[in-house]
Each structure stands twice: as C-alpha cells, then as structure tokens.
Amino acid sequence: MITLTQIRAEAEKCTDCPLYKHATQTVFGDGPAGAQIVLVGEQPGDQEDLAGKPFVGPAGQVLDRALSDAQIERKKIYITNAVKHFKFEPRGKRRIHSRPNAVEIRICHQWIARELSTVAPGVVVAMGATAAQSLMGKVIPIGKNRGRELTWADGRRGIITVHPSYLLRIPDADSKAREYKAFVRDLELAASLLRK
Asked: Hey, what long-range contacts does 13-22 have (CB within 8 A, 24 or more apart)?
C-alpha cells in the first residue's frame, strides 16, 4: 500500500498546472496517517509556502485556538489544502493570495484524493469554498450547507465551514467573536460525527 511519504514525494515533483512555477515549494498535508478527522483548507499562504507546512501562519494560529476550544488535538488530525501550491499576485515586496481557478482545483484534486484514500478518515471538513469545490467536484455554497452533515463526492462524511483566514478579515469585534464561535461549533460538530 502506498504511504503518505510516497505521495508527498510525487506531489513535490508535480508540474501538472502552472502554479508550481512561482511557488517556493509544494505544501503537502501534515498529520498522522490514521487520523479520524481531516481538515482541508484552500491553498497555502505566504508563510506556508516558505515553511512547506500547512496552516503555520496567522490563519493557522486562529485554527489552533479554535481546535483547542473545540477540544480537538491538532496532532491527532490530518491537515491539508485542496491546492498544493501558493497562488499569488506580487504587490511590491508582498505576495497577495489569489484564488485558484476551477481548472487548478480540478488538476490538484488528485493529491487530496490520494491523501484521503491513504488516511481514510471518518470525517472530512472543508474550510472554505475552494476546499468544498474540490471535495464535491462542483461549486457548493458554504452558507446554505454549513452546520450540518453532508456526503462528499467520494462518499465520505463531512461538513463545510469557513476558512480561518475569513475570521481574520472581519473588522467588527462583535461579528468576529460571533463568527469565531460558529467556527468552533463547526469543529465540534465534526468531532461529534465520529461518535455517531
């Protein structure tokens, strides 16, 4: 049986779409092969691209706090992204996140599919629209589908929630606190599905 290490080595050589040309490196998933929960983000950010690990920047800090509040140990879950290379637009010295398009999401789906097949989780959480599109094979609205169990295109159980970077962009403190609590509830729902 193929291992995550072998899949990672293959993904590091991927040139199937143009995103690899400007990214520093492939950012593959991280976590134990037998994880019961897989969290799927959208794509690596600037800090993830430089570090080569998912969710190590500001959004990762929000995610870590939310996981703690939901009583989920990060070291026991597998965290990855739907797209493995950082897509960005240069603005001066900064690299600003640019959303992957449908073709890039579809091409990169081979890696998430192989990760899920190897990890074989009980629940898969899509964080953000790109992750949901990759897992469902089509565009699926977050608001309408959030807060309830659904079945992904491959038959796995899961839920949809917002991407933690969304929480960073909310300017109003009350709205930010409310949305953060909803995000924690979504993570708690994912954990509760394992107990059913």
From this structure: 14/84, 14/111, 16/107, 16/108, 16/110, 17/85, 17/103, 17/104, 17/107, 17/108, 19/83, 19/85, 19/86, 19/87, 19/100, 19/104, 19/108, 20/85, 22/86, 22/88
Q: Tens digit of pLDDT for each residue in 52-76?
A: 999 999 999 999 999 999 999 999 9
Q: Round the average pLDDT of the chain to a whole number and report it.
A: 95
DSSP string, 151-181: E-TTS-EEEEE--HHHHHT--SHHHHHHHHH
Residue 89: predicted pLDDT: 87
Task: State the Cα angle at 187 between 182 and 193, rounded to 5°.
Answer: 125
pLDDT at residue 39 is higher than 90:
yes
Flag whether the pTM goes above 0.90.
yes
**So what's the architecture of 4-190 in CATH?**
3-Layer(aba) Sandwich (3.40)
How many CB atoms sit inside 10 A of residue 166's CB? 18
Three-state SS across 83-128?
A: CCCCCEEEECCEEEECCCCHHHHHHHHHHHHHHHHHHCCCEEEEEC
Which tokens belong to 56?
Answer: 């190590």
Rounded mean pLDDT, 113-124: 97
Q: Would you give the end-to-end CA distance of the chain in angstroms? A: 29
